[in-house]
Design brief:
This protein is an alpha+beta fold. It is about 20% helix and about 20% strand. A hairpin with a 5-residue loop joins β6 and β7. The longest helix has 12 residues.
Length: about 140
Amino acid sequence: MNATPNGWASGASVRVQVCRGCCCGTERKHPETDHDGQLAAISAVARTRVVDCVDECAYSNVVIVRRSDGTSMWLGGINDAALTDAVCEWLVDGATQPPPPVLQSKVFIRKSSAVGADAEDVEPVSVRLEPAGVQRIVE
């Protein structure tokens, strides 16, 4: 996959941002989670970008799904293989329907969404392409 001018890897209709900032994606907070495996699985089925902290640490690991209709779905607590698989299956189906039952309790409203914030508000400082086409934000 190649990077597009807006910073997304090209190649899929659903875009995903995976928080890997202060606590999401860290073995310190979630030692039981295969963070690299999760990122690889999600990036295999959707355009994926790793972002710095999205300031929703109470919900880590946060996965933000940007749907083709322009809406975003924020998922928190995606911390095991079964949940990652459910996210991937939903993404493969285009994420046009509500998330499957196993993910519905993981959906949350971003605390700053009342003032118009959206997943697109998370801006990288700098980006480098990972081998699988995943973009990782680096400071």
